[in-house]
Design brief:
- The protein is about 45% helix and about 20% strand.
- The chain is an alpha/beta fold and about 230 residues long.
- It has a single domain, classed as Vaccinia Virus protein VP39 (Rossmann fold, 3-Layer(aba) Sandwich), CATH 3.40.50.150.
- Strands 3-2-1-4-5-7-6 form a 7-stranded mixed beta sheet, with helices on both faces.
- Helix 3 (about 60-65) links the parallel strand 1 and strand 2.
Length: about 230
């Protein structure tokens, strides 16, 4: 997927991205995000350096900085519109974060990180771009570091994937999510989302160099997976 197409999509919808309670959009919302913080293999007071790919409006960022009070975080996102919302949400953390606008699949950083995290962003990349990104992430990590991706995936079975999407719609309707919002959301799925299986992505992570990989959590088409660098 071309970054400019994804960028235009999120510039258009940035204003109402947080307009609904995310708990009504993401099944297992609290476990989805808490699993990311729990899989970071460091003590809570450790001075760790974290890279976040696709910061968006800062939902995961806020949870991570709250969970690791001495962590420093660098966040990257395509759009100023999203980052402005993140800055407002994160202002109480003062000098503990840096937000950058850019294409995280193409940007080059010099720092070594203890953890690289992402939520609901990498699924916009093609399979080849995912593979290249995973190799880059491995290089960014220090030994003992971890990559954790909380994202959307597809099933190896088309019929099961179709069932997951049906269940997801039902979940949002049960939460009384506006039908207009749902229509826009699923139009967005067709326009800018590229789903791959979690199983395929674990293989790509191993080929990128990660020694230990696994799916840490899964709920229908939402999954958290990643790998550790020994």
């Amino acid at each position: 997927m071309k970054p400019e197409k994804v960028k235009r999509h999120f510039q258009k919808w940035a204003g109402d991205y947080d307009s609904l309670h995310r708990e009504k959009i993401i099944p297992g919302f609290h476990d989805f995000y808490r699993t990311v913080t729990r899989m970071v293999p460091f003590e809570k007071n450790a001075r760790i350096n974290i890279l976040e790919l696709g910061t968006g409006t800062g939902t995961l960022t806020e949870m991570v900085l709250s969970s690791y009070p001495r962590a420093q975080l660098t966040g990257i996102d395509l759009t100023d519109e999203m980052l402005l919302q993140a800055e407002e949400k994160l202002k109480r953390f003062k000098n503990r974060f840096i937000l950058m606008r850019g294409d995280f699949s193409a940007i080059t950083l010099n720092s070594n990180f203890d953890a690289v995290i992402s939520s609901l962003s990498i699924h916009h990349l093609t399979p080849d771009s995912k593979k290249k990104l995973y190799k880059k992430i491995y290089k960014y990590l220090k030994k003992g570091g971890v990559f954790i991706n909380a994202d959307m995936v597809k099933s190896e079975s088309q019929s099961i994937h179709a069932l997951y999407m049906k269940l997801w719609k039902g979940f949002m309707r049960a939460g009384k999510v506006d039908e207009g919002y749902m229509k826009r959301r699923f139009e967005g799925v067709k326009k800018v989302d590229i789903y791959d299986t979690a199983e395929d992505q674990l293989v790509w992570l191993k080929k990128a160099g990660f020694e230990d990989v696994d799916v840490f959590w899964k709920y229908w088409n939402f999954a958290i997976f990643g790998g550790f660098k020994k």
